[in-house]
Amino acid sequence: MFKQLMTVTAGVVIAGGLAACGSSSSDSGGSSGSGGSGGSGDITMGFAQVGAESGWRTANTKSVQAAAKEAGVDLKFSDAQQKQENQIKAIRSYIQQKVDVIAFSPVVETGWDTVLQEAKRAKIPVILTDRAVDSDDTSLYKTFLGSDFVVEGQKAGQWVVDNADTNDVDKNGSINVVEITGTTGAAPAIDRKKGFEDKISADPSIKIIASQTGDFTRDGGKKVMEAFLKSQKDIDLVYAHNDDEGLGAIEAIEAAGMKPGVDIKIVTVDAVKDGMTALSEGKINYIVECNPLLGPQLMELAKKVTAGEDVPERVVTKETAFDQEQAKQVLADRQY
Ligand code: AHR
């Protein structure tokens, strides 16, 4: 849907995030976002966050708050508790408050046109951050800053294909995958599934035998894995759409008396510290990185759009992936 017009390095983002280690005041509990300001500059940003569902999200929120403070942007922050109606309420409240720019990470892909048209009529520019919307009208937002989730899914799938020999844990000639998907309807859940399926289709011995949402949470991942362990036979590998779900799956596998990473292989996405710790301990086998430190770039884009300058329609974050040995090497320096 989008072209990769500008690439940024994780290093630059990480450096920016660390340099601004503070926080702005915020609303939580699905409020409509009348929180205090995090800076004292000329720009007021209304930021409608998805929630606090994962370690990734917590790191992302901290990055946005710290970067706003550093950039002197007055930040109004709201936490939608993973509910689209709360995000829509927050955006409407930002429109009423006549903020200079609205940024949000849409909990799901569809259903945004009406509220984004309201923002457009009020002449308030909108920046999508982290997740995209599925709309034919690209004039409803100025730019989209975030990862390429299809590529993330492809990296996970490619690793499963490349390591097919060892991933066939019970050596019966087929690799039975159970998939714990992210929030239903969310861009990363749709795209990570697609990317993964694209790659594993190259090897007919790899099959997704069950797929269910864990809503990007640890508790969700644990519950789904408990159900899979009861309903599915010969599970070789878990593909979890984020680290938190994978960490929940580890708890379920251990409770069932098995060794995660050995008896059942685990592949996840994010590479937050808890995930990387489990990877370095051998409980996860591979993690595809998704960088949450988007705050500094978001503030740069906000300054440009509010100044009427052109910005690229798509800004893709540069990311990598880690196996167990690589995780051991970088764990000590992992910031989130
Ligand atoms: O949109 C990014 C995804 O949302 C992250 O992978 C996940 O951890 C988060 O909840």
Automatic annotation (TrEMBL):
Pfam families for this protein: Peripla_BP_4
Keyword Metal-binding: no
Protein name stated in the entry: Substrate-binding domain-containing protein
PROSITE patterns per the UniProt record, alphabetical: PROKAR_LIPOPROTEIN (PS51257)
Family, similarity comment: Belongs to the bacterial solute-binding protein 2 family.
CDD domains named among the record's database cross-references: PBP1_galactofuranose_YtfQ-like
A cellular component term, taken from the record's GO annotations: cell envelope
